[in-house]
Amino acid sequence: MPKDYYQTLGISKTASQDEVKKAYRKLAHKYHPDKGTGDEAKFKDINEAYQVLSDEKKRSNYDTYGSADFNGSGFGGAGGDNANFWDFFGGNRGQYTQGGGMEDIFDMFSGAFGGNYGQPQYEERAKGEDLYLEVKINHKDLGQAKTYEYEVMGKCNECNGTRVAPGSKMITCKTCNGNGQVRQTSRTPFGAFSRVGICPECKGQGHLPEKECQNCKATGRVKIRKRIDIHLPNDLEDNYTIIVPRGGNAGKSARPSGDLVINIKLK
Question: J domain: which residues (predicted)?
Answer without folding.
Answer: 4-66
